[in-house]
TrEMBL record, chains A, B:
The keyword Metal-binding does not apply. Residues 27-255 form the Aminoglycoside phosphotransferase domain. Its EC number is 2.7.1.39. It comes from Croceibacterium mercuriale. PANTHER family: AMINOGLYCOSIDE PHOSPHOTRANSFERASE DOMAIN-CONTAINING PROTEIN, AMINOGLYCOSIDE PHOSPHOTRANSFERASE DOMAIN-CONTAINING PROTEIN-RELATED. This is Homoserine kinase.
């Protein structure tokens, strides 16, 4: 969460003039996005999020991400539309960096969802998968099982042990298990792949926005549900919330028998995916950096829960 | 510029419910304020800035700062009003930290002001001094000449020399000069003391907001003009902008003969004030911290300009 780049007012006004959105009234750098700089922009006509893509983003992937937003919005998913400039372009370049102007959506991210909110999130995720079905853009998942193994290897056994003495053995066993049992044959679509509570905007029980699609890729839709399950169904202290789980799954709707059987494996995979990136960041971020490191052990505990609970974690 | 604290949606909604401002619609952490966390809050009725005062703020001073905003707004200065809660309090406490809800003002900060904008800023500063004249709050300037000496002493001659070899001698000579010639007898009021371009919001040539009063204190009004002059009248590359200077001074309006004579000394003081805090921060902020260190030499060069130009820097 940072604003890496200062955009002077004159540059902003000049940039905004390339879009048919009125004149600049206000601009505030906002603390959202891990590898982008973002501004909340108000013009005489409406509000927008201006995103500047920093070093970690491959600009060649922008047409996929921005095209996906437009596709999903046109289908009725609550995702922000990309505003195209006067020449029809979905992004422009300022000072050598790509920028995109994106619709502002109201709503707040919740920290402790209610079952009604979890049900709405499940339904919104199902809608997203349905609406993405005929999207023709292609992007492979760059954080799939082979990359988890690479990230854990980069951490090293000593690094993992410095986080928790049991972690090297846990990771080795779990990677072997997942590689042996990953259900590659399940239905695919373009998925969000990172639908944490801070990427969902809610107005009371209604999902007003699904945001931050920069991990979106083509992968198993049931894996996306598992990611969302692992991100939503645990309290701050790590306690499993069976009521939230049941509501999320009910909102998502029926799964095929194969998907239902695979869900415990996919959830273990989801826990490993976030353990992998968090462990890597934990070991490679200075303790005194202003960026908050997220504790990889949160997901080690969720992994242990999914290992023990099996199908019980997904009971109605 | 940072958001130090995470405020969950539920806490925000609970907090907002203590104010007669409608219900929460949106909340974005914004990258403003050096020692506070700030959110841009939208409710069903209006928009607000929510400020959480972090460790560097003495809560005992909040009534001064927030009372000053209310006083100036009531007099017609373009400053944000403090929203009082249902019990009439100007600030509340959340998780042990003070928070205040403040009116949102439109406008953008400019990087390269036009003369018309500089004139408007001068006029707004004069209005602020006039409107503050009968404000009864008291706060001494905690960054006045004695504190500059302390800050430079904390840097040490070696520290200053590591920034620039000539700096220790420049600082010693200038502190002696200022201590011998500081015009303590000039008119006083409550002053802003930090009116940099990022603390002024503009809509075209109109000042729509003066913000960030957390250095406000009782001191010489002509010193506030000198601070503003040192902050506005130089290009990014350090070139003096005579046209901006003339417009700022014309907008501010007539000075007494004593003030006009003292202005070159006060501007040298202003340059020293920002050199002092920037040099201290430069030496005490890790180079790899996410906080951008501001180069103290920017103000060393402005000091050199004021030393050489004398009264010519303030010619019409």
């Amino acid at each position: 969460m940072a604003v890496y780049t200062t955009l002077a007012a004159l540059e902003l006004a000049t940039l905004i003039a390339h879009y048919d959105v009125g004149t600049l009234v206000s601009a505030k750098g906002i603390a959202e996005g891990v590898s982008n700089s973002n501004w909340l922009i108000e013009t005489s006509e409406a509000r927008f999020i201006l995103t500047m893509y920093e070093q970690r983003m491959d600009v060649a992937e922008l047409p996929f991400f921005l095209g996906l937003l437009d596709h999903l919005a046109a289908k009725g998913s609550p995702v922000p539309r990309t505003i195209h400039d006067g020449g029809g372009a979905a992004f422009r370049t300022v000072g050598g960096k790509a920028v995109a102007l994106i619709e502002f959506l109201p709503g707040v991210s919740v920290d402790r969802p209610t079952p009604a909110q979890a049900r709405a999130v499940g339904a919104a995720l199902a809608g997203l998968h349905r609406h993405a079905a005929d999207f023709t853009g292609e992007r492979a998942n760059s954080l799939a099982l082979p990359q988890w193994r690479e990230l854990f290897a980069d951490c090293g056994a000593d690094g993992l042990a410095s986080i928790d003495p049991a972690l090297p053995a846990t990771v080795a066993q779990e990677l072997a298990f997942l590689e042996a049992s990953w259900p590659h044959h399940l239905p695919r679509s373009v998925i969000h792949a990172d639908l944490f509570p801070d990427n969902v905007l809610l107005l009371d029980d209604r999902v007003s926005g699904l945001i931050d699609f920069y991990f979106a890729c083509r992968d198993l839709t049931a894996y996306d549900l598992a990611v969302t399950h692992s991100a939503w169904c645990f309290d701050r202290d790590g306690t499993f919330r069976a009521d939230i789980s049941a509501a999320l799954l009910a909102g998502y709707g029926p799964l095929s028998a194969d998907e239902a059987v695979a869900l415990p494996v996919l959830a273990r995979g989801a826990a490993m995916r976030f353990m992998a990136t968090r462990a890597y960041d934990w070991l490679n971020t200075p303790a005194d950096a202003l960026v908050t490191r997220k504790d990889p052990m949160d997901f080690a505990r969720r992994l242990a829960f999914y290992q023990q609970a099996g199908a019980q974690a997904f009971a109605a």
